[in-house]
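Here is a typical sample entry:
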Amino acid sequence: MIVPLVDRLERRAVGVGIEPCDRDDALRWFAARFEEAGVVDSADAAFAALVEREEIASTVLVEGVAVPHARVPGARRLAFGVMRVARPIAFGRGAADTVELLFAVIGPPEETAGHVALLAGIARLLDSARRRSRLLAAETSEALVETLGETGAQS
């Protein structure tokens, strides 16, 4: 089933001007928001799953953008959040892997097809330099959500 990307967005996991000090701090921020929103039972479990996935291979997708993702036992539904950081942070393995924009995807282990479709939808969205620029220009969480909605991207 094709779903508009914005329909999977957990608005409590959207932030602009966030100041994580590093990759793990950014992942903790997402995990806490997903727990607060009831997407996952445990922020600790979500954080551990996101870190474990990052250790396999960095999720820096295009210059300045990472898409950390994990399937978590106890996740109630498939969702994603978006963060635009105040200053670029080191995220990948290389010195050049700094990011300003992060999309975090979380979902239950049994939702493999939906998880892959959501990642593909985000990748298509990020394929356009113009859309990435618009997302990076958003000055508020509301503007970021609005920009995502305007793209019409689907998962």
About this structure: DSSP finds five helices and six strands in the chain.
